[in-house]
Recover the amino acids of this structure.
C-alpha cells in the first residue's frame, strides 16, 4: 500500500489521532499532505518533522472549523493553485462531558460546530477535484460513543452519531462517482482526550476492553489508511469500530 | 479553444453527452444526464476549466446553459 501521487487533507492534524494519521500517510509515501488545525505552532512543528523525515510535501492551514468563510477561502486557494485533493480525513473533534442538566447551549454549539458542521463544511468545500476526477475517499472520525452511547456524553455522542448519518447518506450520494465515504469509530485510545481519567476510571475502562489494553493512535491510523487505499475500493458507507473488543 | 468551446467541453465531460446537445436552451434536469450528481461534476469542470471558484448561490442558480454563460461572465470571462 502506498499513496504516491496522492494529496490527503487531514483536519485536527496537530496532535493525537490526527497527527498519527498524518505520519502514517507520510510513511506510506503520500506525495502531499494538507494539514489543518487551530494550533499553528504544533502544525508547523509537524510540517518540519514530516518534511525532514519523508519525501512528502506538507501544506498547513491554521483554521477554526467553525469558520465556514475561512474554510471556503482556503478551499478556493487550493482550487486556484490546482491542488487536487484525493482523500479527505475529517478527524478534528472535541469532547466535553456533562450530564444533561448541566449542558450549556455553548457546549452544544461548540461541540456540533467542530464535530459535525466542520466536517460537513470541509467535505463540501474540498471535494471539487474528487467530483471532477470521479474518484476519491472520504473518512470521517466518529466514535464508539456515537455508536453505543455513554452516560455524561449525550452531546458528544449525538455529534458523533450525526457523523455516521452524514457518512451513510453521502456514501449513497457519491457512490456513482466512485467516491467512497466511510467512518471509523475509535474506542478507548491513548490521546489528550483520555489522559485525564482517574486511575479508577482507567482500570474500569480497561476491564471492559476485550484485548485488555488501551488503543494506540496508530491503531486508528492503520484503519484509516486501509479505508483511504485501493485495498478497500469496494467498501463505502461503513462504520468500522476500532475498540479492541470494547463492551460498554 | 474559445470560451464557448471550453464551456461545451465542460458539459460534455460532466454529463457524458454529445456536444450537439449543449445549446443555450438546455436546462438542468431536462435530460436524465443532467441530474443533481452530474451537476456537481459540471461545477467542478467549469471551475477548473475557467480557473474560477463559483459562489454557492451561483452553483444553485446555474439552471441552463444560457444561465451558465451569464454566471461565468460575472467572473470576467468573455463569451
Amino acid at each position: 500500500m502506498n499513496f504516491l501521487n496522492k494529496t490527503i487533507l487531514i483536519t485536527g492534524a496537530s496532535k493525537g489521532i490526527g497527527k498519527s494519521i498524518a505520519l502514517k500517510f507520510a510513511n506510506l509515501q503520500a506525495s502531499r499532505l494538507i494539514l489543518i488545525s487551530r494550533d499553528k505552532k504544533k502544525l508547523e512543528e509537524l510540517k518540519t518533522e514530516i518534511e525532514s523525515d519523508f519525501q512528502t510535501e506538507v501544506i498547513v492551514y491554521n483554521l477554526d472549523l467553525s469558520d465556514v468563510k475561512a474554510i471556503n477561502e482556503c478551499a478556493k486557494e487550493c482550487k486556484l493553485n490546482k491542488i487536487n485533493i484525493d482523500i479527505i480525513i475529517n478527524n478534528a473533534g472535541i469532547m466535553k462531558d456533562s450530564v444533561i442538566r448541566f449542558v450549556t447551549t455553548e457546549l452544544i454549539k461548540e461541540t456540533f460546530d467542530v464535530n459535525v458542521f466542520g466536517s460537513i463544511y470541509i467535505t463540501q468545500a474540498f471535494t471539487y477535484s474528487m467530483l471532477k476526477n470521479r474518484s476519491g475517499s472520504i473518512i470521517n472520525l466518529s466514535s464508539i460513543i456515537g455508536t453505543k452511547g455513554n452516560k455524561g456524553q449525550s452531546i458528544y455522542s449525538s455529534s458523533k452519531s450525526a457523523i455516521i448519518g452524514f457518512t451513510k447518506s453521502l456514501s449513497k450520494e457519491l457512490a456513482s462517482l466512485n467516491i467512497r465515504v466511510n467512518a471509523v469509530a475509535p474506542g478507548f485510545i491513548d490521546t489528550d482526550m483520555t489522559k485525564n481519567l482517574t486511575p479508577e476510571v482507567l482500570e474500569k475502562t480497561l476491564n471492559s476492553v476485550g484485548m485488555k489494553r488501551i488503543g494506540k493512535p496508530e491503531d486508528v491510523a492503520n484503519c484509516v489508511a486501509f479505508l483511504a487505499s485501493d485495498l478497500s475500493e469496494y467498501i463505502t458507507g461503513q462504520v468500522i469500530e476500532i475498540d479492541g473488543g470494547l463492551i460498554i | 479553444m474559445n470560451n464557448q468551446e471550453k464551456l461545451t467541453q465542460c458539459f460534455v465531460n460532466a454529463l457524458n453527452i454529445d456536444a450537439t446537445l449543449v445549446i443555450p436552451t438546455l436546462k438542468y434536469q431536462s435530460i436524465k444526464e443532467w441530474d443533481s450528481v452530474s451537476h456537481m461534476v459540471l461545477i467542478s469542470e467549469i471551475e477548473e476549466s475557467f480557473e474560477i471558484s463559483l459562489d454557492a448561490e451561483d452553483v444553485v442558480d446555474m439552471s441552463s446553459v444560457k444561465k451558465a454563460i451569464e454566471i461565468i461572465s460575472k467572473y470576467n470571462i468573455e463569451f
